[in-house]
Amino acid sequence: MATIQESFDTVELKIREVERSIVATKVPHPQYLADMRTHLSGYYSWMSGEKCELEIKKNRFFRDNRESFKSDKACESEWLATDEGELYTRMSYSLKGLEKLISSLRTQVETAQNEWKYA
Question: Which of 35-44, 60-69, 94-103, 105-114 has the lowest mean pLDDT?
């Protein structure tokens, strides 16, 4: 069974493939865009669930180690320096990027539908 890190790396590669595919297609068909949006939404959903699991681990780390640090920020910084903390940070940024990409696809689908409708 793949680790969260391995699964995340695989999903990141698939997202990059989708991005390249979208850029390479000059006038994509609305159905193609809708399919890409569906795939990316699935990745977003999976990544959100995994990020939730990492958030729980972060909370447990905080609960178990907070007394060893002078501040909440110092404790959080220590956790973010762990492998799980780094993955959490990468997932956070990837999720923001996916939100923008999915929103862009929504706009492209609407535009393409109008173009195909009136062509």
Answer: 105-114
Q: Of the ranges 29-33, 49-53, 81-85, 113-117, which one carries the lowest mean pLDDT score?
A: 113-117
Let me know if 32 is exposed, middle or buried by CB neighbors in 10 A (0-12, 13-18, 19+). Answer: middle
Instruction: Decide if pLDDT at 110 tops 90.
Output: no
Domain that holds residue 108: 45-119
Residue with tokens 């979208």: 22
Q: Provide the residue type at 102 as one letter.
A: I
Whether residue 103 lies inside any domain: the answer is yes
Domain count of the fold of the chain: 1
In a domain, 4, yes or no: no
- Given a contact cutoff of 8 angstroms between Cβ atoms, the answer to whether 75 and 62 are in contact is yes
Residue 18, domain member (yes or no)? no
- Determine how many CB atoms are found less than 10 A away from the CB of residue 104: 14
Phi, psi of 108, rounded to the nearest 5 degrees:
-65, -40
